[in-house]
Amino acid sequence: MNMFKRLIASMILILIPAMTLAAPVELDRVVVIVNDGVILQSDIDSAMKTVKLNVHDNKQALPGTDVLKEQVIDKLIMDKLQSQEAKRIGVRIDDNRLEQAIQSIAAQNNQSQAQLLASVKAKGLSYAEFREQIRTEVAISEARNALVRRRINILPAEVETLAGMLAKETNKDVNYDISHIQLRFNDDQSKSEVEEEANKLVERLKSGEDFSELAITYSKGPKALEGGDWGWMHKEEMPTIFADQVTTQGKGAIIGPFRSGIGFHILKINDVKGLKTVAVTEVNARHILIKTSVILSDEGAKRELYDFIRKIKSGEATFGELARQYSADTGSAANDGELGYQTPDLYVPEFKHQVETLPVGQISEPFETVHGWHIVEVLDRRQEDRTDSAMTNKAYRILFNRKFNEEASAWMQELRASAFIERLDKQDGEEADDAQ
């Protein structure tokens, strides 16, 4: 036994110097504190890799690593803030909703789901990582939609005026493919310095430099990492500050810089084309909404809705009776749960999916949105093309999209301004970036 103890002691004496001399291995580190959350170095590395691969696929030029890193960190901060808001209001993306989103991405890329997963793996991203990235993005999108919608107020007179203008238009409409650079006011520069920087960027653009490269490098706008690309938009759907500047300019025009409350902006019209009149599909649906609470869990809400379905199918009660008695959507409950003819785009994604895909007369399975748990029945669908009703719906949609873009930008600015943000990667006494 004594020999065994001496042997153990000898081994410890041998190992201690080796342990002492071994260099510590840093597995990961916190780079930014965002309220009660953090952004890790691994998050930045992963995002940098993804951006570089996307830019390479799109054959775009990249700015220097330091500039790209700052742009990536800025986006990660905004994503973190929005993700925190999604958790605060209880947005949850279940696996079924996640699979729908992945299938939609594959369809948009003209790929099968297997081809999409193969391309994801080819970029060095595991399927599990990809799924969680999409889950986070969908949650952020739904939280933003829910919270920004509350800020939008559209007056009947606004809809009526715009509908009258649309009714007078010819069958062709103008559509613009635009890109955008935003230089934001900050404490480090005066407003005149920001304007001077914007003027220099316009000179560089007019001399032939690539707009998307300059947007990735300098823009603080919402589409910076996409090269400033906003895609195709009706003038009426653009943020007001864009629409006010776009008049008779043609393809390739550089517009700006022009000033708003948050900074200076530069636009480029990549292309212009006329649009053919498109028929509008309107859906008349009815639903029952059950909201969860401390007393009623998700499972309890689903059981209650399944019981409603059973009663309707057995003839014990009608859909309208149950909606009037139990639906938490008091506006539609008074009308037997009926929502009236609407374009599906006005609804949140899960509800939109149901009213677009359900056969007429069929009741859905219980499903969850940011508002609670629903069952829905599609009563009718109709095609409308430039009738008074269609024009009213189109006018409402245009006003909604315009105000949504404006309010979403303002909401994100307010979210950042009220947040606690601390950078831990600054060296030599440089101050961390707090919320502006």
Automatic annotation (TrEMBL):
Its main location: periplasm. Gene3D superfamilies: 3.10.50.40, Porin chaperone SurA, peptide-binding domain (1.10.4030.10). Its EC number is 5.2.1.8. GO terms for molecular function: peptide binding; peptidyl-prolyl cis-trans isomerase activity; unfolded protein binding. Coiled coil: none annotated. It holds the Pfam family SurA_N. The keyword Isomerase applies. Residues 1-22 form the signal peptide. It is an enzyme of class 5 (isomerase). It catalyses: [protein]-peptidylproline (omega=180) = [protein]-peptidylproline (omega=0). It is found in: Periplasm. The keyword Signal applies. Keywords: Chaperone, Isomerase, Periplasm, Repeat, Rotamase, Signal. GO terms for cellular component: outer membrane-bounded periplasmic space. Chaperone involved in the correct folding and assembly of outer membrane proteins. Recognizes specific patterns of aromatic residues and the orientation of their side chains, which are found more frequently in integral outer membrane proteins. May act in both early periplasmic and late outer membrane-associated steps of protein maturation. The PPIase activity resides only in the second parvulin domain. The N-terminal region and the C-terminal tail are necessary and sufficient for the chaperone activity of SurA. The PPIase activity is dispensable for SurA to function as a chaperone. The N-terminal region and the C-terminal tail are also required for porin recognition. This is Chaperone SurA.
